[in-house]
Amino acid sequence: MEMKSKESKVENNFFSRLFEEAEKDSKFHAETLKIEIAEQIFCAMERKNLNRAQLAEKLGLDKSYISKVLKGNINLTIETIAKIGKELEAAWTIKLEDKPREEISPYKDWTAARIFDMDTSVKYSENAAITV
Questions:
Q1: Which of 38, 61, 107, 117 fits a disulfide with 72 by CB distance 3.0 to 4.6 angstroms?
Q2: Which parts of the sequence belong to the HTH cro/C1-type domain (predicted)?
């Protein structure tokens, strides 16, 4: 039992240092924003009872493109983000707020958005958010 606790502390320390290093990289923050946008689109789709194929049809895009969007695997233009919002009959709210240094970690309110498969039946709260 004691050994497991020590291993867990070492793992936690390793991941803490890994995240601290990653937070210094602007690419890390860009990926976090992609995840946040994807999660908001996914939640809006759920509220409207739309699947990927239906949203793709409304946008005149391929279903595989929507899959990439929902997995955070694509850089969206502002124009595409606006078009998605329009087709989902939703408005985007974008804020850039100053935060105390200790609140900047995107993992503070981390959700499983990046690691889940969009084809599962798992439901996510529309209030889930990642603080950036």
A1: 38
A2: 44-95
